[in-house]
Please model this.
Amino acid sequence: MHELGIISSVVKTVENIMRQEGLTQVQTIVLQVGELSGVVPHFVEECYPAAVYETFMENTELKMEIIPGIVRCKDCGEEFSGVRYNLKCPKCGSEHLDALSGREFIIKEIIAC
Ligand SMILES: [Zn+2]
Model:
């Protein structure tokens, strides 16, 4: 499970931002997680309490926005949900795909107390 490492780096990033902004407490962080980012939201939720334990984010609420993973078939131009069709074009069966959205893993918002 690499989500623990991912959240640890989120905590570090938030810490740096907080220092720059002169903030000490974070009420909520909002993450944007793309369906094709390789990050599993369910695991993020599971790992979060352990990752923030005894850090300044221990009481910070985690919110996630899931970005649908839309892909376009390079062979026939069909656009579809990559996760739903298992990264295979439902029209022509091609696996040559361009990701249009859903690769993002972003700290969208940090809400200070
Ligand atoms: Zn196709």
